[in-house]
Amino acid sequence: MDYAVRVSHYLDPATFELSRDVILLLVGGHVAEVITGGEVSGGLDGLAMQTLDLGDAACLPGFVNAHCHLDLSHLHRQVPRGLAFTDWARAIISGRQLPEPIIQAGIDDACSMLAATGTTAVLDISVSGDSAPALARHGIRGVLGLEVLGEPSRAMQHCDEVIRARFELDTERLGSDAGDAAAPAALPGIEYGYSPHAPYSTGAELYQLAYGRAFGEGRVCTTHVAETRDELQFIGDGSGPFRDLLAGLGVDLSSFTGYGETPITLLLRDWLGPWLPQGAPGVGAGDPSLQPQADAMGSLSLVLVHANYPQGQDLQWIERTKPTICWCPRSHAYFGHEPWPLREYFDTGANLVLGTDSLASNDGLDMWGEMQAAVQAHPGAPRNELLRMATVNGRKALGLPTDIADLAIWELPPGFQNLELEKLLNLWVGQHPRLVASFSRGQLIARAI
Ligand SMILES: [Zn+2]
Q: Which of 85, 171, 224, 379 could form a disulfide with 198 if both were Cys (CB 3.0 to 4.6 A apart)?
């Protein structure tokens, strides 16, 4: 065994039940055994190579931040508040031109912030794969959604260059194109997926190239969609602030008059329809055998980000196709969006997750902060559902099994005996507990001293 860890409370990631007096045995990146009730009379000695007796502490699944842009971290508190989305986007595009060392320093700071606040895995949107070595150095599990937008073949070519430079030199597929380049150093725990940017910046062909690749390779595909009402307008009839933004960036819109559809339905029914389950909404409710087999079809690993403004048939298409949907509560509040349709999305049966978005529209990367903002927006939301969104639902989206040793261990108030998860979370969502230790892939990545 690599580690034996004793805690007073442990939340089982499969059942979401709290148990008391637990020793966890970690080996090879997994939780190999959970010993409950203090049955090991001799204590921790001899159980593993390393032992940690953490006393009054609760071990929860590590946080999964399902949407961030670590390569925008250098813009933390650099963008004026209160900008319209399209003006904010212009500022971000300028901010991407800053020198590489500044961008790298921002990524490194952000990784420290993640590790210090119990995040053990991220789905990071990445333009050039810059966050891969930093995440690996900090021991955080990462899936990089490699961002593609614009002209399709050039976008996929850039994406392949990033893959060759950062992840793998697939000589079998590349043949002589691989040249003499050396294969990049392996980055343990870091994978890549694909991220077509958004329907307003990325057309059907590029979505299909990227999603087809993700589907065929069993990788995550994530995209922004229906983030603003301006986006609905542009996708619907080609008009509004997005037209000005894109025209200003040199995009030829002379023949574009919109798609006459909402962004979510356009994606789920038309552009990605060939890959997604298309069961009829409401059919077989209560009978799992008649429901679309979301897991088998891989639609959990389609992560729609924001989806702030479902309209028309959107909820039905979400119910049919069962994607993962990511809410970024603090970034949502930053832009002053209308309330996120949490209840409506719960009812579709989609896999709901939480993310922070970037530090250019958020003041931190702490997932307790996201849960707190979620509660402020929806005071009645069950705290344990929010914790699922912040932890195990993210694992599902990333295709991670439930027994992984991705753990965040939090200090309990003195004398705390209660086993009611809802009460504990209610306390913590308001107060941000102190992190005692965290593990990603079975390795210790943070430890309070
Ligand atoms: Zn984003």
A: 224
